[in-house]
Amino acid sequence: MAGEGDVKLLGTVVSPFAVRVRMALHLKGVSYEYLEQDLFDKGELLLASNPVHKKVPVLIHAGRPVCESLAIVEYVDEVWAGAASLLPADPYGRAVARFWAAYLDDKLFPAWIGILRAATEEDRAEKLDAALAVVEPMEDALVQCSGGKDYFAGDSVGYLDIALGCNLFWFEALHEMFGVTVIDAGRTPCLATWAERFVETEAAKKAAPPMKSMVDYAGKLRSMWAAAAAAAK
């Protein structure tokens, strides 16, 4: 495929942002080498490829690194333009999709991390309420962007679908660990139906992290946070 060349992806199997890029690469039909990174002991390649943030994902294409998952998805969409576009064709549609994708990273990711980080049931219930409030506007966004079709992008999975969809696996993990439901069918029925449909797509199945890996990683994070809180007292 034109523009393919040598493609590597630095990520962790549990990172929703790396999952996002993996789904984009799959949708565009791009072959790549996946290199798992240890974020508790960061290697030289990651530090050299992303010296500013020192985090995953990083796409290395023809020796040049591209950082930040949304930027990577747009890069992939433009470089491998021969496959179906992930972003809408019209400028307004692209602007709307980018707005909501930024909203998800700015608001939704911290909201569900708050649920994971909560030390008490009371605190977790408060964090869940906050997350549900963040999720609610996505119901109207889905109706607006989809035009009544199956996905935010219409008939097929696109940019905003994977921007939100990469979080769904962690929502399942939070339900497994704490019994919470982040996308509530009673409050956001269209979004709940979309989520059920999305996780059954080939792109989602190809990139889905193992539940055990997410639960184990969550345990490490919670132990680290608890130790830091105890040290601060």
TrEMBL record:
Localization per Swiss-Prot or TrEMBL: Cytoplasm, Cytosol
EC number: 2.5.1.18
GO biological process annotation, one example: glutathione metabolic process
InterPro entries noted in UniProt: Glutathione-S-Trfase_C-like, Glutathione-S-Trfase_C_sf, Glutathione_S-Trfase, Glutathione_S-Trfase_N, GST_C_Tau, Omega/Tau-like, Thioredoxin-like_sf
Domain annotation GST C-terminal: ranges: 90-221
GO-annotated cellular components: cytosol
Domain GST N-terminal per the UniProt entry, residue ranges: 5-84
The reaction(s) this protein catalyses: RX + glutathione = an S-substituted glutathione + a halide anion + H(+)
Top-level taxonomic group: Eukaryota
One Pfam family matching this protein: GST_N
PROSITE patterns reported for this sequence: GST_CTER, GST_NTER
Main location class: cytoplasm
Protein's name according to its UniProt entry: Glutathione S-transferase
Organism name: Triticum urartu
Name of the gene: LOC125545794
